[in-house]
Amino acid sequence: MTRDAPSTRFERQRKRSVESSTLIEGLPGLGMVASIAVDQITTQLGLEQYGAITSDDFPPVAAFSDGRVRDAVRVYAGESPAVMTLQSDVAIPPTATESLSRCVLDDLSEEFDDAVFLAGAPARSEDQVGSVIGVATSERFERELTDAGITLAEGTGVVGGVTGALLADCYHADIPAAVLVVRTNPYIPDPRAAHAVIENALEPLVAFDIDTQELLEQAEEIQRQKQQLAEQLQQYQQQAGEQQRQPSMPGMYQ
Hints:
Blueprint: E1 8-12, E2 22-26, H1 33-45, E3 48-55, E4 63-65, E5 68-70, E6 73-77, E7 83-88, H2 97-108, E8 114-122, E9 132-136, H3 139-147, E10 151-152, H4 161-172, E11 177-184, H5 191-207, H6 213-217, H7 219-239
Parallel strand pairs: 2-7, 2-8, 8-11, 9-10
Antiparallel strand pairs: 1-3, 3-6, 4-5, 6-7, 9-11
Helix pairs in contact: 1-5, 2-4
């Protein structure tokens, strides 16, 4: 009996000499915080596309940038610092959550030592925008979060969507991982929250230096570019009955 091919696959497009990296996830979520932040990190560090993830469960679309078609879900990598990023030009539908997470763990986990995931949670006031808390899968990562000045989440909660699936799969596979939950405007793409999570959490945790000033200077243009993704994500949330769900802290979306 032949085994069915997986519905979601990683297609490696080039070789790299670094055997291990930190994976930073930048998939579309509340406030587009992860997407905006990781776009900036990939650009600033000059990361090159390492491969792409394709899936029968992804929307049947062709993504493009500056007039050229490109893979919708991409993995970028660099060597100094040794960082990998996971990015997408499409919102990940709920039906693809499990298969995408398993693909990352099955096809990529040997190439990263640890992972940092990003999730947005709705800010309850303007002053809350940009505040960050962390959740870790291991005692070691708890210490790293604390050493980086990141407050650990108190009480109980859940991390939903593809970010939650990735975090849970890393936990069960004993891969050190953490999710950074940043308070964001829940209604529009939020470059200010992305700026805050880079400056106050990712830079001290991953030990790189990112110029985030243009996130503030080009906020309106960034919001315009990400608005379609935000609307697509909102549509998926509505279909899944998640729209306007505002759970108590940490209320998390992906």
